[in-house]
Structures are given as structure tokens and as C-alpha cells.
Amino acid sequence: MLIEFSVENFKSLKEKQTLSMESANNIHDLDYNLIDFKDRADKDYLLLKTAALYGANSSGKSNVLDALMRLKKLVKSSHNNQKGDELPHEPFQFDKGCVNTPTIFDITFIHDGIKYNYGVSYTEKKVTEEYLYYYPKGRKSQIFERQNTDEFKFNKDKEEQQIIKERTRKNVLYLSSSTQFNYDKTSKVFDWFDKTLNGIGPKESPHLTEFTFKKLDNNETFKKRIKKALNVADFGISDIKGYIKTVPIEKIKDLPPEIKKLGISDGELKTMEIQTVHELEDVEGILPFFLESEGTKRFFSLIGPIITALENGDVLVLDELDTKLHHSLNKFIVELFHDPEENPNGAQLIFTTHNTNLLDQDLFRRDQIWLTEMDPKTGSTDLYSLIEFSPRKDKDIEKGYLVGRYGAIPFIGDKKILKEGG
To answer: What is the mean pLDDT of residues 363-380?
Structure first.
């Protein structure tokens, strides 16, 4: 479960910006939108199940999610860096003082009943600072601290960690390196990034379609849930059929368009074909999946990871939830996470959207709605919560947002673009 994430000097996020999933103390409605959780130290947490990010195009809302995913990627892959390899450093570009300074990430989360706090600062050349703390008994305890790239402090397992430190290159996260050497206290944190924190972008992704199909193909319970979701979504689909097989490479050019190419292994091409079944009035209609509507394909690619997140209690980061989906489907997805029966394990959904119909205080608490606005003077992004404006429970927040009461909307100037003159 994510508690809080902060980012500084990443893309348009110049100053430190923080997304918090902790509930606000002054809001006492929609309690079913909260995860009421007690950790191993018997400390109580009230965390948000969902957070929606709104803002104009190019305001930086996607950059907040990109930052989370960048941190995940660094943790998962930096140990592969060889000497001289560069880290993926994308600092704020409109201030020369930021270009050669570190990007900073800080994240706090709960994994296996224990609270962790991890942070890292880095440039394209090296990791400058890094730390990991945990709270196994309710009090902050250091696992490691790293300063000036190669200065480390260890309060636990000092001999083991000293050996790992000597094998950690300056362009590698110690969290990643120590996990590769099977250090158990960092391996658990690595697993959270690897398995629990997951992201989906706004574009159609063949691997998500493959993921969903493989899950329903191998798990009858999962298939029933997929079919039920498709039925609720009213696509007219009663069943999904398909298969995965391999074909000789020489036959690649002859493949019909409904066959998806998944990859080559041992001289053969792995392929997948999916068909949807429609129960019509007098006949069972079978349609190749690639002929389905773009909305159907998008929903199918999303619903597999969504059901998986709900089953496992994952944190799902979804950029542009409303892409190709009707408002009712957006709401349906959000309500899955809010429903205690559908979400018994504390899964969280963090998403960006332009769908203002979701701005409803019967659907969201005020602390679940976040806004991004670009400063026209500096080009930097400001991230803030709707609770800063304290709208009353009876306020129409969609209307307030559209008229600019909370900021985070585009300013449209002269609408005449074809007339001559300046």
C-alpha cells in the first residue's frame, strides 16, 4: 500500500511535489473509499483506495505517474549498469541550475505489514544519495544510508552489507545491487517495486492484451471474472476464445492480421489469436479480436491487470483512464476499487483523466482529487489537492472545476485561428 510519494527535479516537476494517499483528518464521508489497516506494530492507517489527477494538457499530471514508474524502473534494472553507463536522468530543463543537479525520489509504503521509507538522488553519472528505513516495531530503523555516492552507514548486518557496498558501482542503486546479492532486508523492498507497483500507459499495449488472455486461459475463476466484467460493460460479448502457438519463422509473412506476433524463440515465432463470441438473436457470432472496437480492446487490456491488482492488493498506476472508454466504464473501474467486496486486500488505483463527469462528491472524497497546474512564468508543475479549497459537501465540484475555481484547466484565448492579423 502506498502512503506517500515525492519527486523533485524530474521533467516539469522542478520543486518538490508530493502525492499523499493518507486520508485527510477533516473529511468524514465515503469511508468505504478508505483502507483501514493496522500494521505489524499495531499502528492504524487510513489510506485512500484511489487518487484521480486532473489538469490541462502539458500541465505535468502524467509526469507525476512517470516519476513513480521511473523509480520502479531504476530499482528493477540499475544493477545491470556497467561502468560508464548513464542513468536515465531527465531533470527540469528551463532552469540551468537544475540540469546538472540530481533528481530526487522519496517513497513511503507498507509491504507485508511493515512500513518502509526509501529515497534516492541521482544524476546521469551516479547515485548521489540513497537511504532505506523501516518500522518493524513502530519506530524508525535504518537499513542503510548512502551519501556522496560511496559513503555508507549500516546499523544492521554490517559485515554483509560492507561486502555488498564494495561491489556496488556508483551508477547502481544499492537497493538493486544488494537484492542481487540476496540481502533479505532489501529484497523485500525490491519485491514491492517489482510485483506490487505496476503501471499502464495511455496507448494500446499488446503485452497487456496477452497478459489478460493468458490469465483467463490458465485460470477458470479469472475467466469468469473477465466474462462478467465484459458483460457489465455491455459490449455484447458472451465469451472469449483463443490460443497461443508457435509457427516457423518462414511463415511470418503469411500470417493473417488477426494473428498477433508475440516474439521469436528457438527459431519459431510465438503467436496469439483471440476471438470474441457474440450471442445474437439467431446465431452465435464469432469475431476476430482485432475487428472489435478500440474501446473494447482497451477495456480488455485493462481489465486483466485491474482484476489482478484487486486480487493481490497491488498499487496500479494508470495514465489517462478515460482513453477510448465511456464515462460509465471509467466510473465502473473506480467503483471496483472502492467496493470492499471487490477490493478486500487494499488495492490502490492512481490515475490521470480529463473526464470531469467523475468529479462527483458521491464518488470521491475531496482528498482523493489532485490537480496539476503549469506555472506560465517558470514552466514548472504544481501538484495540489482539492482539500486546499475546502469545497462544501453540497458543492458541484465538476462545475467549479470547469469554471476555473480550482485552477488546473487550460486558458483558451482568441478562438479565431484563421483570421489574418496578430
So the answer is: 95
CB 63 within 8 A of CB 381: yes
CA triplet 206, 210, 211: central angle to 5 degrees? 115
In our burial notation (b when 16+ CB lie closer than 10 A, e otherwise), range 39-77 reads beeeeebebbbbbbbbbbeebbbbbbbbbbbbbbebbbe
Which of 242, 244, 241 lies closest to 277 in space, CA to CA? 241
- Return phi, psi of residue 149, to 5°: 75, -50
The per-residue pLDDT for range 313-329, each reduced to its tens digit, is 999 999 999 999 999 99
- Could you say which of 3.40.630, 3.30.750, 3.90.320, 3.40.50 is the CATH number of the domain covering 1-202+319-410? 3.40.50
Question: In degrees, to the nearest 5, what angle opens at C-alpha 236 toward C-alphas 234 and 238?
Answer: 110
In the prediction, which pLDDT does 114 show?
Answer: 96
The amino acid sitting at 170 is K
Give, rounded to a whole angstrom, the gap between the first and last alpha carbons of the chain. 52
Q: How far apart are CA 411 and CA 413, in angstroms?
A: 6
Domain-by-domain residue ranges, the chain? 1-202+319-410, 204-314
**Sole residue written with cell 474501446:** 295
Give per-residue pLDDT as tens, 119-164: 999 999 999 999 999 999 989 999 999 999 999 999 999 999 999 9
pLDDT confidence of residue 408: 76
